[in-house]
Write a structure and sequence with these properties.
The chain is an all-alpha fold. The chain is built from 12 helices and no strands.
Length: 249
């Protein structure tokens, strides 16, 4: 399994983010009804209430109980939010409350949720078909090949839950945020052929703004001058350990 993943070539279907899209929209949008249409402005105050901690620890819900559609998802723009009927399977008045105020702060003023535009490609179905990648990421961290700081990551990798390879520590939070989403180093455990800008285009769309703000027009001269105090450890995420200048210039 580990050998297969490490040698797996860059696909057109990998990503920075994935399954936790259901609450990634931001702490402002706490619940996640797909019946709320996309593309509309989200309210500044929370309209919906949700807790991963309660659902995972108290209700003993599994990821697929709410996000079964993720197993067959082939695109980053797919809506993986559970529908209202999905929630009502448990929130039926017997297993869990079905009053509107259980999930809605202001039931008479329900707002539509805006999901962020996707500037990357990802295929959940393909990645899940590869098997449980959690041990693979754990091995990369333990072996020192993980290309980012692994603090607070290793302890949350659950070998029994393949979703935890990318979406970690959800049992500790109510609303999921960026820290619960996969980071670039997770993808690079398997997608290790780094050759910018060509490798970037496999996963990031042409309109993706992935260049750091520090890379100003004069950056080529500045970063060779020695005047910049660069943390070279952060460069390997985009450039790898053996990058060529001509790849970008």
């Amino acid at each position: 399994m580990l050998k297969l993943c490490i040698s797996f070539p860059i696909s057109t279907q990998w990503i920075l983010r994935g399954l936790v899209v259901f609450v990634f929209v931001s702490p402002v949008n706490s619940c996640r009804y797909s019946s709320l249409a996309l593309g509309q402005d989200a309210p500044e105050a929370q309209d919906l209430k949700f807790s991963h901690r309660v659902h995972l620890l108290r209700a003993k819900a599994a990821c697929e109980d709410c996000h079964a559609v993720a197993r067959n998802s082939t695109g980053a723009t797919d809506d993986l939010l559970p529908s209202e009927p999905t929630c009502l399977k448990c929130h039926n008045g017997r297993q869990a409350g079905n009053q509107c105020t259980v999930c809605h702060n202001q039931p008479d003023q329900v707002r539509r949720v805006r999901r962020p535009a996707r500037t990357f490609r990802f295929n959940h179905r393909l990645h899940l078909q590869l098997g449980n990648l959690t041990p693979v990421i754990a091995a990369a961290i333990d072996g020192g090949s993980y290309l980012s700081a692994a603090k607070n990551i290793r302890e949350h990798l659950d070998p029994q839950n393949p979703c935890s390879a990318c979406h970690r520590a959800l049992e500790r939070v109510d609303l999921a945020g960026n820290s619960n989403l996969p980071q670039m180093a997770d993808c690079l455990v398997c997608h290790a052929e780094i050759d910018p800008p060509f490798s970037c285009e496999f996963c990031h769309t042409k309109n993706a703004q992935i260049k750091p703000l520090s890379h100003t027009p004069d950056y080529l001269d500045l970063h060779n001058s020695g005047r910049l105090k660069l943390e070279k450890e952060t460069c390997v995420i985009c450039h790898g350990h053996h990058f060529r200048c001509m790849g970008c210039h």
